[in-house]
Write a structure and sequence with these properties.
The complex is a heterodimer.
Chain A lengths: L1 H5 L5 H27 L2 H22 L3 H25 L4 H22 L3 H9 L7 H20 L1 H9 L1 H6 L4 H18 L1 H12 L2 H7 L5 H26 L3 H19 L5 H9 L1
Chain B lengths: L39 E11 L2 E12 L3 E5 L6 H9 L6 E6 L2 E2 L7 E4 L13 H7 L2 H4 L7 H13 L15 H14 L4 E4 L8 H16 L3 E5 L6 H4 L2 E6 L1 E7 H4 L2 H8 L11
Parallel strand pairs in B: 3-8, 3-9, 6-7, 7-8
Antiparallel strand pairs in B: 1-2, 1-4, 4-5, 9-10
Classes of the chains: A mainly alpha, B alpha/beta.
């Protein structure tokens, strides 16, 4: 029994996977507070799908490298995000509709292209993650992305918070609201890319929303939302990788599933905003 | 019911001399409201476009600190637009807005804009103190930790607005009147001199309305300039010193007794608003 529990810690690729899950979870968890406070979960979800065609084009143009995948997916997400803005401004369509059209079309193109490129066996990894396949270099990439994203987000915490709370008032107080919104979007895209190898572009949204959404039902403190989300994301992801090993299930889905389970518990039993608490309040 | 009690006379609203001692930190600054100096807000031939349509044109008026000004006009008359333009939120298409003789953009710290209550995300996980704290960020910048003086300013603003016991409350767990006062407290912590309020009385119950009216009077008497869009015709005379009648352009501006007349209202609304009814 003990051996079975300790088994995952003995394999180097497992140690890497746990470490990567911890890192990715911490960063995504912190960033998830911004997604929840901005109420932009679906928008971010669209962008996460937009990563796939970017990867496909990058492989087509430059071959399969770390940097080409990173740049390709970043470029695709930015292109589709800004493209939807341009379409909505240049027509009577709203931005969400424009985004839906662009990302589904691009996603379809990406799938077709990836099949043609003969990397079909890797497609599942792009879609649902393959954290066991991480190399040391991937771990370092994740480390630097985490450092960069957390540094930017924490150092701009005040103006970002003001922008999220009330963009108009923030603007009157001298906060460059528009620039910060673009910066935040760019950071969120990079964070999405960092989670690609862990959970894939289909599930990345779960990791970038659930942690803070869960803490949101527990607290009224903004700091608790950010750091609580970070802690929850990191620890839960690392734990889920172990669960995946013990129960022999895929790690990517396991991460999102465990996060979902924690959310469900909190949704039901949160002492502050839980369903049971509310039901009790109503019946009184 | 008066909620603001004992606003200290040795407190400079412009320069943030928040001091509990009996001596002023900035005793004789030439532009201290405390010293009787009056700053002027001057709007000259203002034109503001919204989606290529003129939302406001040819608006001119001048007022100074120590006045409580009502913006009165029908829906779509441009009341919010004017407030936002003065706050620097909308680009000015023509004319200019001057505070203390210089363009308002330079004075963002001195000018506080209070949004309509319905435009605020009340579920945002932030406490009363957290909101008021934001008022200090223009002073502290983006990184510097809050100094004891900043904390004192926050404490004082919260106390003046009668929210001392509610500092740790999440903002949705407040009454409408308290919510309005949270934003006033933020403006006080900011040491704003001009308060721009968009429909502050909308949605408040009777007691809260009276309390807010008293608060606005106190802030005015203290030397601040308060400008608010207002709907309830019955209370204009009790709260405000000056009235700007607005309908895409300035119909009339001046002391309440001179401007807030049947003839003036008829010219603004087209018809005379029935007495005792709120004008929608």
């Amino acid at each position: 029994m003990i051996d079975w529990l300790l088994e995952p810690f003995q394999q180097p690729f497992n140690q890497r996977a746990v470490l990567a899950a911890l890192l990715i979870g911490l960063t995504n968890g912190y960033a998830s507070a911004f997604v929840v406070l901005r109420k932009s979960a679906l928008k971010v979800g669209s962008l996460s799908h937009a990563l796939l065609p970017g990867i496909a084009v990058a492989i087509l143009v430059a071959g399969l490298h770390d940097w080409s995948v990173f740049l390709g997916s970043l470029f695709a997400a930015l292109l589709i995000g800004l493209g939807s803005l341009a379409v909505s401004r240049g027509s009577r369509l709203d931005q969400d509709s424009a985004l839906a059209i662009l990302y589904t079309a691009a996603f379809s193109g990406g799938i077709i292209l990836l099949r043609r490129l003969g990397v079909a066996q890797e497609m599942e990894a792009w879609l649902f993650g393959n954290i066991m396949g991480l190399r040391n270099s991937d771990l370092w990439t994740n480390y630097w992305i985490s450092c960069g994203a957390l540094t930017i987000l924490t150092s701009l915490h005040r103006p970002l918070l003001m922008t999220l709370f009330d963009a108009e008032v923030a603007a009157t107080l001298g906060v460059p609201v528009r620039a910060l919104n673009y910066l935040l979007l760019a950071v969120l895209i990079v964070v999405l890319i960092s989670s690609l190898q862990a959970v894939g572009c289909m599930l990345a949204l779960g990791l970038l929303v659930t942690p803070a959404a869960t803490v949101y039902l527990l607290t009224d403190s903004t700091n608790a939302l950010f750091w609580g989300g970070s802690l929850l994301g990191g620890l839960t992801s690392a734990f889920a990788v172990l669960v995946g090993w013990w129960l022999n299930i895929e790690q990517g889905p396991a991460i999102v599933l465990v996060l979902g389970a924690v959310f469900l518990m909190v949704f039901l039993f949160s002492p502050k905003y839980g369903l049971l608490r509310r039901a009790r309040g109503l019946s009184r | 019911m008066r909620l603001v009690k004992g606003i200290s006379r040795n407190y400079c609203v412009t320069h943030g001399a928040i001091t509990d001692s009996q001596t002023m930190t900035y005793p004789t600054h030439e532009s201290c409201a405390h010293c009787g100096h009056h700053h002027e807000l001057r709007v000259e031939n203002l034109r503001v476009c919204y989606r290529r349509v003129d939302a406001l044109q040819d608006v001119s008026f001048a007022t100074s600190c120590g006045a409580c000004v009502a913006l009165i006009g029908p829906n779509g008359a441009g009341k919010s637009t004017l407030l936002k333009a003065v706050a620097g939120l909308l680009p000015v298409a023509g004319g200019r807005i001057l505070w203390r003789g210089t363009k308002v953009a330079k004075w963002s710290r001195e000018i506080a804009y209070l949004p309509q209550r319905e435009n605020v995300d009340w579920q945002f996980p932030i406490t009363v103190r957290g909101v008021v704290r934001m008022g200090r960020y223009p002073q502290t910048g983006w990184w510097r930790p809050l100094a004891p003086a900043d904390e004192a300013a926050i404490d004082r603003a919260i106390e003046l607005m009668g929210l001392a016991d509610l500092g740790q409350r999440q903002i949705s767990q407040l009454s409408g009147g308290q919510q309005q006062r949270v934003f006033l407290a933020r403006a006080l912590a900011q040491e704003a001199h001009v308060l721009l309020l968009d429909e502050p009385f909308t949605g408040l119950d009777r007691n809260s309305k009276q309390a807010l009216a008293a608060t606005l009077r106190d802030l005015t008497e203290e030397g601040r300039l308060v400008i608010a869009s207002h709907h309830d015709m019955d209370t204009v005379r009790d709260i405000y010193d000056e009235v700007l009648l607005l309908h895409r352009r300035a119909i009339a501006f001046g002391p309440v007794a001179e401007v807030f007349t049947e003839a003036g209202l008829a010219a603004t609304f087209g018809v005379r608003p029935a007495a005792g009814k709120e004008v929608a």
